[in-house]
Write a structure and sequence with these properties.
By secondary structure, the protein is of the alpha/beta class. It is built from seven helices and eight strands. The two termini are about 25 Å apart. InterPro entries: Glyco_transf_92, GTase_92.
Length: about 260
């Protein structure tokens, strides 16, 4: 049985592969977005947090659930429009880690089960920063591409601290992300960069209509994991949990 799709083994392999070449190794899911709030880039934020107390082996960011909306039709997708719909649900989940690979030799999917003697972890307060977890995404059939950002999302985690109107991302940040998303580097026989609008590229235009509008396998696996693991985990019935893995899911049973 493969626990959680072999994530722990894959993450430990990554950690060991980069143990001698990376200052920090971050382990997050594909729907986890970590936005630096203490510095202008990841490296400076991680350095600031690791140096905030002695003997830190890894730092741990909580995950803050958000809901958001985006176009179901891939041809209408706009990163700018999607980011503008983010709203924090003020619900926190078990977070993810950033490791100093000198002091961590193995990890589980959320945190290491053991670290070197004399070392410790630093838990980042969620009013300082947290992972933006794209937990509840609505795929809107009616959504069409908009040229203007509707709203700038506010960073509003589940913290007892005084709320602020601090943005999750600034309008300039979102514009830059949208421009980066829409650009593509094309290399000719002589390496020559050429920036084009992604949506206008013929090869992209051919692919977009073929992308799925429903994710049946994802829906089936999510329901299976809920039935076999999460409903026991969140209700405190941990003694009833069996090793969670996709081989325990009879996928055909969940299709309808």
């Amino acid at each position: 049985n493969v626990e959680f799709r072999n994530q722990a083994a894959a993450q430990t392999d990554c950690l060991l592969q980069y143990k001698e070449s990376a200052n920090y190794v971050s382990f997050v899911d594909l729907d986890d977005v970590l936005i630096p709030r203490l510095a202008g880039n990841y490296l400076d934020e991680f350095a600031h947090l690791f140096n905030s107390m002695p003997n830190v082996a890894y730092i741990h960011y909580a995950k803050e659930n958000v809901r958001l909306k985006t176009a179901k039709n891939p041809g209408s997708f706009s990163l700018k429009q999607m980011l503008g719909t983010i709203q924090f649900e003020r619900v926190s989940e078990t977070g993810k880690l950033v490791a100093d690979p000198r002091y961590v030799n193995a990890t589980w999917i959320h945190f290491p089960l053991a670290i070197m003697n004399g070392m410790e972890r630093y838990v980042v307060p969620n009013n300082v920063n947290a992972i933006t977890h794209l937990k509840h995404m609505i795929l809107d059939v009616q959504s069409s591409r908009l040229t203007d950002l509707l709203t700038v999302p506010t960073y509003n985690p589940s913290s007892d601290e005084i709320k602020t109107d601090a943005p999750l991302l600034t309008k300039l940040d979102i514009e830059e992300l949208q421009n980066d998303f829409e650009s593509k580097i094309i290399f000719f026989k002589v390496v020559k960069p050429h920036v084009s609008r992604m949506a206008r590229l013929p090869e992209v235009a051919r692919v977009f209509p073929k992308l799925p509008k429903r994710f049946s396998y994802l829906e089936a696996i999510s329901r299976c994991y809920e039935d076999t693991y999460y409903k026991f985990h969140y209700s405190g019935r941990v003694n009833e949990i069996k090793c969670p893995g996709p081989d325990r899911c009879v996928v055909g049973f969940y299709f309808f």
